């Protein structure tokens, strides 16, 4: 049984998806739709940069979505892709909804462009931060966050990425303090992340409120297969529940470990990550070693991915 996974913010590089654009008419069409929907050449920013421009949240989010869906369409041109489930990490949940036919791509690219802007605007630059805590259990990280917060400070787990990697987010001073406490507790490392805002914590509430009416304008459709959501870490097939789940996702932690464990419990044996990078397939290996994993990040991997799908 196959599940498709889609990456979130951070999995980007200038030039991603260029070979799919050049070799696949279906992929090229996706890039063209994105440019028309946004009213500027997102494709040019993806292929030519500069990196500082592409790194901006309001550009990076639609860029990763567009590249992921373009790669999926390029793959579908050559081999049937029959997934039993879809899932994504944060932003990647929008790609998963597009892949499941619950959300039109044109609506999705406009939505994540707005989402990126709202998230960037929610917290003044320098106030928030994120860091990856390595080598400490999720339970211990949660305890350190509680112990490290002073007064009404916000600092909480934001991404449960693997049993030994939890990302925290919140106010910069609190994040720095919790990192130091985590090392004292036995963490191997505490790595500050180069992000523009503290995602998936209560500081993002203004972004969630701005996103809600945008979500209300979208018509979500019946899904071709269930999407395992970040907020609940179980499958959802009801399109009417999607807007509330996506609003909650802005401030709630990404429960990726539980999502992978749920998929395995439902019989998934093969995970294919579609989109730039290979972060999620690497995380799956740490969560469920006995699964089969692959990633499709460029046309160079087409033959290998085709073989993986045939055997899934």
Count of domains = 2
Which assembly state applies to the chains in this document?
single chain
Low-confidence stretches: none
The CATH class of the largest domain, by name, is Alpha Beta
Tell me about this structure.
This protein has 312 residues and is of the alpha/beta class. The chain folds into 2 domains: 230 residues, Malonyl-Coenzyme A Acyl Carrier Protein, domain 2 (3-Layer(aba) Sandwich), CATH 3.40.366.10; 68 residues, Alpha-Beta Plaits (2-Layer Sandwich). It is built from 14 helices and 10 strands. The strands form 2 sheets. Strands 8-7-2-1-9-10 form a 6-stranded mixed β-sheet, with helices on both faces. Strands 4-5-3-6 form a 4-stranded antiparallel β-sheet. Helix 7 packs antiparallel against helix 10. The chain is globular, with a radius of gyration of 19 Å. The mean pLDDT is 97.
Output the keywords.
312 residues; Malonyl-Coenzyme A Acyl Carrier Protein, domain 2; Alpha-Beta Plaits; 6-stranded mixed β-sheet; 4-stranded antiparallel β-sheet; 14 helices; 10 strands
List the helices and strands and how they pair.
Elements: E1 2-6, H1 18-23, H2 25-38, H3 42-48, H4 51-55, H5 57-76, E2 85-88, H6 92-99, H7 105-122, E3 128-134, H8 138-148, E4 155-162, E5 165-171, H9 172-185, E6 189-192, H10 205-216, E7 227-228, E8 235-236, H11 242-251, H12 256-265, E9 270-274, H13 279-287, E10 292-296, H14 302-311
Helix pairs in contact: 2-5, 2-7, 5-6, 5-7, 7-10, 8-9, 10-11
